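Structure (tokenized):
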């Protein structure tokens, strides 16, 4: 039952992020790229203020997988690196924290490019 509730919370939180994004696309002049950047910045700001951690604790993957979770990861990585290395951590902390996800994205993009043949449009 605990696993089921965790899945429901993740689904609802992630779904809410998607709903907000869709409303912004439909009702505003914002482009999808601006909305995506806004989500990352919102995650950084909320993470820096300490407000995103309770959402992660509540929703799990529903809060860490969306782009706001990436922003939160960057902010928490910088916070940890500054505590350990001082001012240099501002430059290295975010990338260090996100290195695993970035490496996986590059690897799977490369693998997909090797396995699939791109065809020109038209």
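Design, position by position:
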């Amino acid at each position: 039952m605990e696993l089921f509730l965790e899945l429901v919370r993740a689904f609802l939180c992630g779904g809410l992020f998607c709903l907000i994004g869709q409303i912004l696309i439909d009702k505003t002049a914002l482009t999808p790229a601006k909305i995506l950047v806004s989500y990352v910045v919102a995650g950084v700001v909320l993470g820096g203020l300490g407000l995103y951690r309770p959402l992660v604790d509540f929703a799990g993957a529903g809060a860490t997988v969306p782009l706001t979770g990436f922003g939160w990861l960057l902010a928490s990585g910088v916070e940890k690196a500054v505590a350990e290395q001082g001012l240099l951590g501002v430059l290295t902390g975010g990338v260090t924290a996100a290195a695993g996800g970035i490496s996986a994205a590059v690897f799977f993009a490369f693998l997909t490019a090797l396995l699939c043949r791109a065809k020109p449009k038209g």
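Reviewer-requested clarification: The chain has a mean pLDDT of 92. The longest helix spans residues 89-115.
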